[in-house]
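Fig. S4 source data, part A: sequence.
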Amino acid sequence: MNPRTEARLEKVKRMSRSGRRVCLLLMALLSLAAAVEVFATLAIPETQTCEVGGLRALCSELPPQVVTLTAVGLVGGVALVLTALYRLARLFQNYARGEIFTRASVREIRFLGYLAVASAVFQVVLFVAALVLVAGVGAEWPAELRFEFPIGALVMAMFILLLAWVMDIGAEMREENELTV
């Protein structure tokens, strides 16, 4: 490998180590924030009313189905973000080891694409569940709540999966090249 290429590879490795640390830090902060939110919600007594202004006071006035749907949305959203950050950290770890066009790196990128699709599907499922909930209770749909199809997440997923496909071809070509040399 020539010195210029080697220097560029070292820069990629260094930046990837930093990227992995950032992902792990974000995972820790998000986990901590979610834990604090759960603790704060559970710590407020059920008897308090709206003057507290906290989530529990609001939840005590809502039907249990709404609270459950909100909790599922929160837990599902946090789980998707944590999983994406974990997969990014693994991808950066592969890059830090110099494994750029490898099947392991392609697998992580492909998984990120699947997570983007899962996020879009999750948003649609939550909206449908909210519609069913409103219809079941016989209430009116709040005017300020509207649904927008998550086309952005699906387009992002398409590009990520396309990138993974192209990288898979690159990894295959690299393996063939290594075998013939």
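Fig. S4 source data, part B ends here. The CA atoms of residues 42 and 167 lie 46 Å apart.
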